[in-house]
Amino acid sequence: MLNLLISMALSAALYVFLNTALIAELDGRLLTAARAIPFVLPEDYLDRALSGRTISSADYERNVLQLNRYAEQVGVRYLYVLAMEQGQVRYLADSASPAEVKAGRYGHFLQSYTDQELRFKVALDSGKTYFGEVRDEYGVFRSTAMALPRKGGGFYVLAADISMQSVMAQQNQLKVQAALCCLVLFLMGAGVASILANKMTAPLRRFSLAVRRFAAGEFDVRMPIHRHDELGSLASAFNAMGDAISAREHLLRQLAFTDRLTGLPNRVKFAEALTVVLSKNPLWLAVAMIDLADFRYVNDAFGFEAGDRALCIIADRFSLLQANPVRLVGRVSGNVFALLLSAENESQVQLQMRQIEEALSASLLLGEQKIHIAIRSGIAIFPQHANTAEGLLRHAEVAMFFAKLNREGSVLYDPSREENRLNQFTLLGDLREALQENHLVVYYQPKINVATGQVNAAEALVRWQHPNRGWISPGLFIPFAEKTGKLRGITEWVLHEVLRQQVAWQQTGLRLLISVNVGVSDVEDVQFVDFVEAQLLKAGDAANLCLEITETGVMHKPDVMLQNLARLRCLGVRLSIDDFGTGYSSFAYLAKMPVNELKIDQVFVMSMNSTFESVSIVRSMIEIGHILGLKVVAEGVETIAIWQALAVMGCDEVQGYLIAEPMSSAALVAWLDKASHLPAELTPPSMSNF
């Protein structure tokens, strides 16, 4: 009986040790997987999600599937990111299988999350990492929630789950092994109990020590196998488990430091290698961040698989440049590569960047199509711009941002431009508030019929009255809003405000054709046309709205645009080509586009005072418009000579500071009440005099 009790006690102790090691391994696996989440997601995803920027459903679902693939590789069930938003724990990212995504069974962006014991809420409130059991709507899990601080205060958590069914299955295996050990010890009999005890005590102590070290994270601990009995089997099982965990840890390290697609170092590994180089106290070095310009169009046109092949080809070309002019290359995000150049001064940097551009200029063959990739690069220099790896990378990224923004080939980091960039981003945040708080104001600039001198139309121009900075020039915030994708919100606000004002004017008997500026991307978007139609239904009269399509945009979907323009015409909206002569339009498209008028850009109009060529260009534009049956409007009229020249050429309408500056709606009404809007010297000239 004593032998049985001893055997049971030893087996129980063995089970406790093995179970402790198992839980430690599982928690270590969960923690390692959770730490890797930022490296699996796109580089700037968490920054955008935590800062409240909108994440599209398509991007979110791709990230859900990407996290699921990574979870399957490292042996966990779910990976997700939670944060406190609007007083509730909400998803910023989740993982799910394709079947679960199809069924909608996953945490959607900013969807609330609740576990029965509110473990994650406690972790978010306290900022402490949680290990333990969690019950939620998806089941019961062994979970880890690693709390990390977020900008502006508070915390968010990187979380990983393993199903308790899986944990219990492994625990049951340990119980079976422990029970077998108990049975073997009991059957050996009382006669050899003392001998077996002496032989087993030392191995069990070693086993216990190994388990404790394993539980502490020393996954390279192994048990020596000198026996062929049950303890030898347990030692073999322990060592096999250690080998599996070590292999998984190696894979995790590889995933954490290597780009899986190209095999190049990722941002973390590149920064580590750069830190090693800096530790050797170099006198001078340069880091370049290179963006493959407009690479998303490759994915759109040929698919992501072809895009991945193109990235691998480009990565190989970068690798062929090592060790001259490139000392180190890494892929730090989707289509951005980091290079450590071998240059020793700025002139060598420019020379080496030209060599890199030449190496990448050769066409890529995707299927039967040849494509050419342009690059936008930013360069930061040690020690002039930064003395740490992260500092150099960040400043090179800032320079790359300006290269992309201004479509320049290569830009050297300039601290003053970064300060301006920060001011612009601050302005972007204020712009969101301006739209919500009605800090924007619509001004109107009248257009005059050249032949009659009557005012029947005006152009709506947006102005921004900032509560702290005062009036902000449209030339400052409109281009930035356009480049950052925020112009649509301004356009829709102006359109809504103009139609509201027209309703008010019509109630007083005033009817004016009001023009609103829109971009090519707007009229290529069916949703924007839907918005216009909805606003027109509210206003009740579309005949007094004209959309001026800015010609400087780039057409990506001309067929869709033509369909949308035809739909707008059916709604009664007049259409105008703005800034004519500076952008996309050709005779072929111009003949197809269902527009009503052409608007000559002020650059050509203003230069009529100084160059004869400009006069000829403007005359040709007017003739082209009239040949196509379109009304022609000239903007930027500031002198009497230009007014008279346009009248002689047959221009239909003009606007500019010679007529009137942009003004508020109330000021426009007062201006219109004047008996005559034109000074005597601006009376339409008689054509018989010419």
UniProtKB/TrEMBL annotation:
Alphabetical keyword list: Membrane, Transmembrane, Transmembrane helix
Gene3D superfamilies with a match to the protein in the record: 3.30.70.270, 6.10.340.10, EAL domain
UniProt GO MF annotations: cyclic-guanylate-specific phosphodiesterase activity
CDD domains recorded: EAL, GGDEF, HAMP
Any one annotated GO CC term: membrane
PROSITE patterns the record matches: EAL, GGDEF, HAMP
Transmembrane parts of this sequence: 176-197
EAL domain segment(s): 424-676
Biological process terms in GO annotation: signal transduction
Domain GGDEF: 283-415
Domain HAMP: 198-250
Cross-referenced Pfam families: EAL, GGDEF, HAMP
PANTHER family associated with the record: CYCLIC DI-GMP PHOSPHODIESTERASE PDEF (PTHR33121), OXYGEN SENSOR PROTEIN DOSP (PTHR33121:SF71)
Name of the protein described by the UniProt record: EAL domain-containing protein
Source organism: Deefgea piscis
